[in-house]
Amino acid sequence: MAEKMLAGVLVKVNDEGYMEDASQWNPEIAKEIAKEIGIELTDKHFEVLNYLREKHAAEETLTIRKVGKSGVVANIKELYTLFPKGPLKFSSKIAGIPKPASCV
After folding, report:
1. Angle, to 10 degrees, between the axis of helix 43-57 and the axis of helix 87-95?
2. What percent of the chain has pLDDT over 90?
3. Is residue 3 over pLDDT 70?
4. Catalytic positions, please?
5. Tens digit of pLDDT for each residue in 7-36?
6. pTM (two decimals)
7. 3-state DSSP of the chain
8. What is the predicted pLDDT for the residue at 104?
9. Which of 61, 62, 74, 100 is most buried, judging by how many CB atoms fall within 10 Å of its CB?
10. CB neighbours of 9 closer than 8 A, spacing ≥ 6?
11. Per residue in 66-84, pLDDT tens?
12. How many beta carbons lie within 10 A of that of residue 26, not counting itself?
């Protein structure tokens, strides 16, 4: 496990850069992770991130299909528009939660 400085906070990350402790997350950290990935966060992004964090805290399994049908986004296509090249993989990383098992 490594440590990385994000938004002035030293956070523990795994070898893929996912935060090890979701309680260290804050919106500024999310913005910095997103910037590294090449995404500029909007309010809609934060709606998705907060949804993912809530489901993670409730220990629910996350899938692209579940997020697409959640009502947070209109459909899976919108999720891909918000988080191109790996919507659940990158949205989870930015949300400060572990990479879902369904992501490669």
Report:
1. 80
2. 89
3. yes
4. 103
5. 999 999 999 999 999 999 999 999 999 999
6. 0.93
7. CEEEEECCEEEEECCCCCECCHHHCCHHHHHHHHHHHCCCCCHHHHHHHHHHHHHHHCCCCCCHHHHHCCCCCCCHHHHHHHCCCCHHHHHHHHHCCCCCCCCC
8. 65
9. 62
10. 24, 26, 29
11. 999 999 999 999 999 999 9
12. 13
Residue 85 pLDDT exceeds 90:
no
Q: Give the Cα separation of 40 and 61 in Å (integer).
A: 26
Per DSSP, what are the bridge partners of residue 11?
Answer: 4
* Contact (CB, 8 A) for 12 and 3: yes
Residue 20 phi, psi (nearest 5): -85, -25
Q: Which of 9, 7, 48 is nearest to 31 (CA)?
A: 7
